């Protein structure tokens, strides 16, 4: 094999690490719709949000205008423990596919949380510490976010209380143990520790929980303990802001070699990775400086972009959170039981929802057996065992590269490889044994879910 | 926090990756003792070894003279997929310990095998492929080596047959599944697929297996299938040669900033990591150019350096392998059932054994509860969740840094962080729950084991 001069991995130096997060909202002509108070139907104010979120994070959440927000030095120091993350040229995958396409991926899995979630966890924990708080509460499903937050809190000596969806708590004991190594307390949700948990347990004894339910418990726990606030790993504007470090680093690395991607691909659950990856590129597109093709990839079993409604909806099942305008499948929607990985949130980041609504990006839904096929193909040539979530992006990157093979086009493809699959071997085993199946919700199911969308003035 | 100018992580560029492995034997005045044919008591020749090992690997095994051995381009290309591995300045650990010592670690865990084992796996698989072989066989205990070999074979389209100690096969299904993702066949050992396996099963029905037994099976499987050879992940001279890349990269990174370590620390099971890490530094010591303090760290429950005999012994339980002169606890020695991690081999690399015997390095035995204390302390400030094996080195690095705190000495400490502990959460859980215990073999136990050492001319 002979390769070009572009290295396998492009690392920025620590001096080249971004000093600012980029706020894509500043370049959006139509801003994402504000969060609404479900009781009044009015936009949530700074004061409305203070019982739940840290002050500085509320400012970031509401700031649609400041383009660059400085990254505090303490956060930059923490970033140096695991960043810069490499931009990898997928030479081996290209050769395997015999494609003229050039494939790059930004790899965010080289840290113990196993994903990009740490980028926002440390920021949120830092602002909580800076405000003099005692601790934070959160929910976690598969466990990446809970692990990331426990790492950040351990570093800052901050208490960390994680509500983990009960079925994951029981089926993923190792994830739970990692969080405990970092000193977090992990409670299976629904639990007896909150009023909302007790109510759900009373109504549905034996339930194995859901992400929406764990969110409700974590929010209640934060609001009811002095010196605590709630933090969330995706969906929110502030999270996309912190995750812009992914795209900023990727862009800086590409710029070093004058590489311009034609297509940028990311998996999408709540949108934190996709939003972070595309932000600086989308900024150029919004400012009319350069055009890119953006592709969001979501599971066919949880297709919020491709089959959801663009409407105000609750962010949680317990309906204790504000309403957000987003592509949603309805806050009661839970993906089919055979769905293996993450990317199971019913809604989508309001920022990405607005960009998608404006036609500035595309979305594709893919079935999980096809996703695991791509994951295994990737692992065998590129070495890295990808997370099921990340493998959604791999699937479409391979599809696009194969299109280039047909047409002969030498497109440059960039995708986000958000994390590793070391805690997902049960799913890989099912795939291997031929026990993995696909499920696509029917139109009737979705219609039934949409029928429960909240009534909001000005919304059908 | 304010930090010095040395970055958190020193990465070499791909151009700076070593082009040669360094063979420390070339600088040893007293060479390691040769492998002996157990039937004749004579040194094993090239021809003797050909039924079991690849030709080029035998040449490397027997070569005590060539100082630098070129790394083939294909192996260097593979190395670029996950190397250079970073040299990390443990700023956060230093601050936590409030020590004047400067601590560096070479981190080898950023690849899917989760350890340094991949460095030799790709070399051994490459030479097998180059010789036109169909496949390789091996044994694995905890699973790092098996995973590494399956990754290398998958990349080269080579068949990979792994005999996995039965108790690990059953208790670590995820490790097994990772190997399957990479296309390896994994057989629980002892098995019905080999004569030696059948004999052991007949004699000890219900046995859960051992590393020595799995080695015997893998060797038989290689010798009985045309186009197959056996490969081993540690102990052998060739493995230390390949692993010298760890030390070469570490030294190159240190040299960039004119840093000279005072103490170099590595965990030691069969010696592959320790030997690789210290090789180029030991070369300088052997040539009289510079002095270093080297410390091997082993489990108190498997103390081959600190309590073993320097004697010829079998490399495997089934006694189908050649005899090696090494520090050994006896080929029947099996660490106590409460021993959690790897580092459970009864012997030690002949190269390291000879160096230790000459007083060129020290060794310390540490108890596992103290090791996990260090692991957790490290994880909480440095982010990385370390493997139990690697944590032996962390333990002694922290001990040495605390000595510096007492004396006020500003020593520079370098240690090898061989891998990550994502598949070791059962052990972490036991530690957390206070269920982890220590065990130190009694003198009587060891004497009984030594009594079974083979009779070799010139050996007591």
Characterization of this structure:
2 copies of one chain form a homodimer. Chain A has helices at residues 46-49, 55-62, 73-82, 91-97, 118-130, 144-156, 166-171, 173-181, 195-203, 211-224, 237-256, 272-286, 304-307, 350-357, 368-382, 388-407, 425-432, 443-450; strands spanning 9-10, 20-22, 68-70, 87-89, 102-107, 135-140, 159-165, 185-189, 228-230, 263-267, 293-299, 309-314, 323-328, 362-366, 412-417. The mean pLDDT of chain A is 94. In chain A, α2 (55-62) crosses α11 and α4 crosses α15 (368-382). In chain A, a hairpin with an 8-residue loop joins β12 and β13 (323-328). The radius of gyration of chain A is 21 Å and the shape is globular. Chain A is α/β, with parallel strands linked by helices and 460 residues long. Chain A is 42% helix and 16% strand. In chain A, the strands form 4 sheets. In chain A, strands 1-4-5-15-10-11-14 form a 7-stranded mixed beta sheet, sandwiched between helices. Chain A has a 4-stranded parallel beta sheet with strand order 8-7-6-9, with helices on both faces. A two-stranded antiparallel ribbon of chain A has the order 2-3. The first copy, chain A, folds into 2 domains: 9-16 and 82-114 and 238-450, Rossmann fold (3-Layer(aba) Sandwich), CATH 3.40.50.1100; 26-70 and 116-230, 3-Layer(aba) Sandwich (Rossmann fold).
